[in-house]
Design a protein that fits this description.
Layout (H helix, E strand, L loop, with lengths): L7 H20 L2 E12 L11 E8 L9 E10 L9 E5 L5 E8 L7 E11 L4
Length: 128
């Protein structure tokens, strides 16, 4: 919920929406194995200089999975320098049953003083 709920009914509606989304995911043969997020702030090397720059974040799953999952990543927060074009790419590499690497890349003159990345690890449901 991006805004504070105004009533208990708002919370109930949000929960019902979440339940519907999880049911849709299960119908497609997946379930959520783990979730997380991390922040990259202005102190990181990706925010200074020019040209190709990247930052690597290592994700470790709470529990080892039976197989490497599918990883969905998204930008959930971003602050950029307004005087230059924004350039950002998220890439997930080296996915194993224990974790993965999420790379944030930028290029040219772009600066990224604040980046928040959210991720979801999805595993296939076991077929009975």
């Amino acid at each position: 919920m991006s805004d504070k709920p105004k009533s208990v009914l708002d919370i109930i509606a949000w929960c019902q929406n979440l339940e519907a989304r999880l049911n849709k995911l299960e119908k497609r043969g997946f379930q959520i194995a783990d979730v997380g997020e991390f922040i990259v702030d202005e102190s990181r090397e990706i925010n200074s200089g020019s040209g190709d720059r990247s930052y690597k974040h290592e994700v470790l799953f709470e529990n080892e999975l039976s197989a490497p999952p599918k990883i969905l990543t998204s930008l959930s927060g971003l602050n950029v320098e307004s005087s230059v074009n924004t350039a950002i790419k998220l890439e997930t590499l080296n996915v194993t049953s224990k974790g993965a690497e999420i790379h944030i890349k930028t290029w040219k003159e772009a600066t990224l003083p604040f980046v928040k990345v959210s991720w979801v690890a999805l595993v296939a449901l076991e077929k009975n």
